[in-house]
Design a protein that fits this description.
There is one protein chain. By secondary structure, this protein is of the alpha+beta class. It has two domains: about 180 residues, no CATH class; about 230 residues, no CATH class. It contains 14 helices and ten strands. The strands form three sheets. The protein has a five-stranded antiparallel sheet. β4 and β5 form a beta hairpin. α1 crosses α10 and α9 packs antiparallel against α10. The longest helix has 23 residues.
């Protein structure tokens, strides 16, 4: 259940950042709407630790029906404990009859003035999962259609996992009944895929499994080799096949694979898919760059390139504040992945061009820029001292340098060059 709470937190975070990417990037409040939570007593801290330990995924039997009953205070203790593992922020939920009011204040790691994204959601009971009735961001009303679109995708994905049987909301009490499955993350991710696309993804995943089956266990694989292999498979499909659909499937399957995940039919209660044998996949000799490249590519085709850019950049800024540090090399992989996905799915002509380009085989130099001289491992203070903020000329010069490096890759040159 801890993992399912984390998934809900990530869905919430993605919703916030998606809204930012859609045009409200500078819409920050100077004060959080959620005040600092009163210090939990020693007894409450001990309870949270015990609760998370007892409800860890490995303690659950596959297919077991589990019912959790939480008071409002217990829900808030758990929510804030898990939110603190994600980033800097506070959250509070008020439970009422048939509805829950959720408020979240998320500190923005890039904002030197201490700005916050303040999000308010009203959730109402509606079948097995609640629906979003209203939302406000940074104190301003959000268009209902925009919120509903973002929320519907998240909730539909969760519903297709068949994880939650019911969520009952009462005054000072939430009752959640769910069925635990160890492949929850795969099912949730697959739930975001349109039902008509799923057969294509399963086909390419099967071909990928055949490709890696003969590779000795633990041996690293190059992202360029796997991309070329699957794009050649896409090229070999009947002439009636849509090259955009085929390339999308290739991107999503590889994005799942490099992150250690598999695509599954979320409506299939049995684990009938044998995932490809896992190998570390590298780009420029690094596993993290392959993950950045393919994850950004997948986000670009599932949402838009602005969303992918902001999510990747938010991750880097979060890393600078206590993580692995801000990395312009990671940013280069993010931006190259977005460019690749855009070219591979922009039109039938460009989609086929990418397939033809990969047909004779290629190297990572064809689509991934060199990362020599790109600063990495910068903490927040070091980043601010060197670049100030993302609007500064120094920061923009770095982005322009990365884009020039990407433009010089053979795949991204115009056909006449």
């Amino acid at each position: 259940m801890r993992r399912s709470f984390k998934i809900l937190l990530w869905l919430l975070a993605l919703m916030v950042v998606a809204v930012l990417a859609l045009g409200t990037l500078m819409l920050l409040d100077r004060q959080p709407i959620v005040p600092a939570d009163p210090v939990a007593t020693e007894a409450e801290q001990a309870w949270v630790r015990q609760w998370l330990a007892v409800n860890r995924p490995r303690a659950r039997q596959t297919g077991k029906r589990i019912t959790l009953t939480l008071s409002e205070r217990e829900a808030n203790l758990i929510l804030n404990e898990l939110l603190n593992q994600f980033g800097q922020g506070q959250a509070v939920v008020h439970l009422e009859a048939g509805r829950a009011r959720l408020r979240v204040s998320l500190a923005m790691p890039w904002d030197q003035l201490g700005g916050f994204v303040n999000l308010e959601l009203v959730l109402v009971e509606d079948g097995s999962l609640p629906q979003v009735e209203a939302a406000r961001l940074a104190g301003l009303p959000l268009p209902g259609a925009l919120v509903q679109t973002l929320a519907d995708r998240a909730l539909t994905a969760a519903d297709r996992t068949q994880l939650f049987e019911s969520v009952e909301l009462k005054p000072d009490q939430a009752r959640i009944t769910y069925i635990w499955r160890p492949d929850l993350l795969e099912r949730l991710g697959s739930g975001f895929v349109a039902g008509t696309d799923l057969p294509h993804l399963l086909h390419y995943q099967e071909r990928l499994a055949e490709k890696v089956a003969s590779v000795p266990r633990g041996q690293p694989l190059g992202l360029a080799e796997l991309l070329a292999f699957l794009l050649n498979e896409a090229r070999s499909q009947p002439a009636s096949a849509d090259p955009i659909t085929e390339n999308r499937a290739v991107i999503l399957v590889l994005a799942a694979y490099v992150n250690g995940r598999a695509i599954r039919d979320p409506a299939d209660s049995a684990t009938t898919v044998t995932p490809p044998r896992q190998h570390p996949v590298r780009l420029r000799g690094r596993r993290d760059l392959a993950q950045h490249f393919m994850t950004s590519a997948a986000l670009a085709i599932q949402g838009n390139d602005a969303l992918s850019t902001v999510l990747g950049w938010y991750k880097e800024m979060s890393d600078s504040n206590g993580g692995s540090g801000f990395s312009f090399a990671d940013m280069a992989a993010n931006r190259a992945g977005i460019r690749f996905a855009t070219l591979a799915t922009a039109s039938s002509v460009s989609a086929r061009r990418v397939q033809e380009f990969a047909a004779p085989g290629w190297s990572e130099d064809d689509f991934m820029p060199a990362i020599d001289g790109l600063p990495e491992g910068m903490g927040q203070r070091e980043f601010v001292a060197a670049f100030g903020n993302p609007q500064s000329p120094g920061y923009q010069r770095m982005v322009d340098d990365i884009d020039r490096r990407i433009d010089a890759r053979r795949l991204f040159r115009s056909p006449s060059e």
